[in-house]
Write a structure and sequence with these properties.
The protein has one domain (7-118): ornithine cyclodeaminase, domain 1 (2-Layer Sandwich). It has five helices and seven strands. It has helices at 19-25, 28-43, 109-126, 132-140, 145-149, and strands spanning 15-17, 48-57, 61-70, 75-84, 87-88, 91-96, 102-107.
């Protein structure tokens, strides 16, 4: 897999991508397409995930970290966030695999929702016995609307 962007152009000052820029630049269908391209790389040993870890403090507050290596794309990254009674602000940090240079900091709340919705969409595609309406109903329970939205692009997608 080649790099999805020109890594040389990111040399120097790290790029900061705001939550609003993420939402404007990426829609759920694109997240599903990216997952479809990247998940097989992990199966082929060309990428690997970091096990999620967390630590707790105070009245149930938590600090989380997850990550992945996409060596063929020239990037590694970790998403980290603290979850407190006041909320959470997840950040995705991307580094170059050759230089170790920080390439980007991405505000990642919506990005995480799209990843979760995209995985749900792929799961629905893989499991044709579950209709989109049942999938949406189940995923909407508990306010998980972004996950249910993952089923929406499936109605127009060609499947094998």
């Amino acid at each position: 897999m080649s790099a999805p962007f020109d890594l040389a152009a990111l040399a120097g000052e790290p790029l900061w991508i705001s939550e609003a820029e993420v939402v404007a630049a990426l829609h759920l269908g694109e997240a599903i397409d990216a997952l479809e391209r990247c998940l097989p790389l992990e199966a082929d040993g060309q990428a690997c995930s970091m096990a999620k870890t967390h630590a707790t403090w105070g009245g149930g507050h938590t600090l989380h970290a997850i990550g992945a290596v996409m060596e063929g794309a020239g990037v590694v990254g970790t998403k980290s966030w603290a979850h407190t009674g006041g909320g959470a602000t997840p950040l995705l940090l991307l580094w170059g695999t050759e230089s170790g240079e920080l390439l980007a900091v991405i505000e990642a709340f919506a990005l995480g929702q799209m990843r979760t919705g995209g995985i749900a969409g792929l799961g629905a595609m893989a499991s044709r016995s579950i209709s989109a309406s049942i999938c949406s109903l189940v995923m909407t329970i508990g306010g998980q609307r972004s996950r249910a939205d993952g089923a929406v692009p499936l109605r127009s997608r060609k499947t094998s």
